[in-house]
Structure formats: C-alpha cells, structure tokens
Amino acid sequence: MTDPLTTPPTGPADTGGPIGGPTGTELIGQIAASIRRERERSGLSMAELARRAGIAKSTLSQLESGAGNPSVETLWALGVALNVPFSRLVDPPRPTVKVIRVGEGPVTHSERADYAATVLSSCPPNARRDIYRIEAQPGETRASDPHMPGTVEHVMIGNGRALVGPSAEPVELGPGDYISYPGDAPHVFRALAPDTLAVIVMEHI
Fold first, then answer.
1. What is the pTM of this model?
2. Distance between CA 118 and CA 104 in Å, rounded?
3. Which of 1-5, 63-67, 160-164, 185-189 bottoms out in mean pLDDT, i.e. has the lowest?
4. 166 Rama class: left (phi>0) / alpha (psi -120 to 50) / beta
5. Number of domains in the chain
6. Nearest CA to 28 among 81, 68, 60, 78?
7. Domain hosting residue 157, numbered range
8. Is residue 108 part of a domain?
9. 121 belongs to a structural domain
C-alpha cells in the first residue's frame, strides 16, 4: 500500500485537490511564496521547474501568484523537483510556542483518494528527533527542567486532556490538539483526565 504523502505521483500532477481548513487563503499565499522562494533559491526558471514537476507552466504561474489551489500530489511533485521536503512548502513560520487545535493547521487533500494531510511541524536542517508515547493519570504535575539549548518539544494528545507547555503559561489540550514549545526552558505536563495518552517528539538541533 502506498501513501500519497510519501510516494511520488506516477504521472503529471495538477491542481485538482483543494486546500482545506479555516486558514486556507493564508495557506495558499504561504505556499505561493514558498514555491517562488525555493525555485529562486534553486536557480530554476518557471518553465524548467514546471517541466521537472510534470505540470503545466501556466499551472505553476497560477500557484506562484497565489491563484492556484494545489493538491498533495502537485506539492509533492514540486518538492521532489526542488529537492526540498513537502513540509517546507506548506508549513508557515513557526512561533516560539505554537498550538494547533484539532481541525486547524495547513491541510492539503489528495486528488486521488479520501485523504487529508496536516503538517504540524517540519524538521529543520541538522535536527535530531526522539519520539515518546506518554500515558498519564490526573494528579501530580510532571515538571521538567530545561533540556539542552535549542531543544524543542512537540506534543499531540491522542486521548484525554492535559495541561502542557511552558511552566509559566501551559495550555489545556484535548484529543487531536498539538503544541510546540521550547524544551530548553522549564515546562510541564499534567494529565487532566484518566488514561491521558500523548505523543511527545523531542527535537535536538
């Protein structure tokens, strides 16, 4: 079984799938700027990038102007042609603390299947990530001392509720909610419901 997010399309891509979510217009503008930035960084003309990605030059022109509405397949093809991760084209600049509620975030849809992908965070260059599955019960707060400089933690709640984030300003999260915050400053995790389940990704730069 192949995954349209991790498997390049076998034929020419187009703009058949819509961008979803409440920030769709902003996301399309972000994608347009990202495509243009990465194309210029690579020194490719619009015609050459369109040829490598297997899309029409007019389609690429629409995307770069913010008038297009790219599918997962189109963005994957462009990412491959530009030699950059898919996420770099859709992930907006990351603030120090970032919270994504379930139903929010940059969503792209497949043109070939009932499939939607939400980029929560792209991995920066030269980063290392450890992934943890957390099971917690209400009671004592798990207070963490600062980790090594440059550490960022990413947390997504799968079940239950929890208070997560910087010690001074933790955020209450429910199933499907996501937060990222500096791991090199004091931070907490406190379960608010029985059998709270979460995934924590610790990113070291």
1. 0.55
2. 8
3. 1-5
4. beta
5. 2
6. 68
7. 128-204
8. no
9. no
